[in-house]
Specification:
Residues 38-287 form the Fe/B12 periplasmic-binding domain. One of its GO terms (biological process) is cellular response to iron ion. The chain has 290 residues and is of the alpha/beta class. The chain contains 10 helices and 10 strands. Strand 9, helix 9 and strand 10 form a beta-alpha-beta unit.
């Protein structure tokens, strides 16, 4: 009996001292000595992913435009994703910082690492990355029960969309991610996976940059069957109006100018399930107009 009790107590001691470790999107091992309780997110998308992982209550700060879910709006601000306020970040005494590799100034992120802060670098490029990021953040925050449920729910929803559109006729798509300067996404961007899921073909998929600048002349040359745009707000489709002047475009002739609320496609979060559903509906509409 004595040996059994000693074994149980030893196991509990080892568990209490065991680090929680994951591999981030920069292929770095990230460990915390115990579940993180003061987390800072350096992008709106990271904020959403942390809430999805059940770690919202453990957040100590977030960057501007971290507006979903509504509780995120109450978090102390630590600058913007492009202009980090290092002093504000340090003042929160974070035990975990979630950075965005392609969005944050990595020099500042490296300074935080050099100061000894634990930094998880996030860069979801596929739908599966969204799910696995939620799971990894759940591990670091000690909220795996919530995180695993959210991750699997997202996987199931995306799988259903992929199955539904697996044999859909291809539709060429120009996705406008910004207006001035005019910008789109290449094939490596997560938005392109949404386009592929719906049976679309990104007409600028071959470009090297993740979010390249392009000209209106380049769009006219590609002559997409569909133009999809985000906007400056969740109900602001104004970026589509200028395209109506180009009557030679297939997308204009067929009335295939569509708006998708940007937060549902332009942030790598579980909201992409709703955004991809909307996108698929738009492409189905375009097919019906042929």
């Amino acid at each position: 009996m004595h040996k059994v009790m000693v074994g149980i107590l030893l196991g509990l001691a080892l568990s209490a001292n065991a680090e929680l470790c994951v591999t981030d999107d920069a292929d770095r091992q990230v460990c915390v000595p115990q579940p993180a309780k003061r987390i800072v997110a350096l992008s709106p998308g990271a904020t959403e992913l942390l809430f999805s992982a059940g770690a919202g209550q453990h957040m100590a700060g977030a960057v501007s435009f971290s507006d979903y879910p509504p509780a995120a709006r109450k978090l102390p601000r630590v600058g913007s994703y492009k202009r980090l306020d290092l002093e504000a970040i340090v003042a929160t005494a974070p035990d975990l910082i979630v950075a965005w590799r392609s969005g944050n100034p990595m020099g500042d992120v490296e300074r935080l690492m050099d100061m000894g802060f634990v930094v998880y670098v996030s860069e979801p490029r596929r739908f599966e990355d969204v799910s696995s990021t939620i799971e990894r953040l759940g591990t670091l925050a000690g909220t795996s029960g919530v995180a695993d449920g959210a991750a699997n729910g997202f996987r199931a929803g995306i799988a259903a969309l992929q199955a539904r559109h697996a044999s859909a006729a291809p539709v060429t798509v120009f996705y406008q991610v910004w207006d001035e300067p005019l910008m789109t996404v290449n094939e490596q961007h997560l938005i392109s996976e949404a386009i592929r899921t719906c049976g679309g073909v990104n007409v600028f998929g071959e470009l090297d940059a993740l979010a390249p600048r392009i000209s209106r002349e380049a769009v006219l040359e590609k002559d997409p069957q569909v133009i999809v745009a985000g906007g400056m707000g969740e109900d602001s489709p104004g970026w589509l109006a200028p395209w109506k002047a180009f009557q030679s475009l297939q997308a204009v002739k067929q009335g295939n100018l569509f708006f998708v609320p940007p937060s549902t496609l332009q942030r790598p979060t579980t909201q992409m399930l709703a955004g991809t559903r909307t996108l698929c509906q738009h492409l189905d509409t375009a097919r019906a107009r042929r």
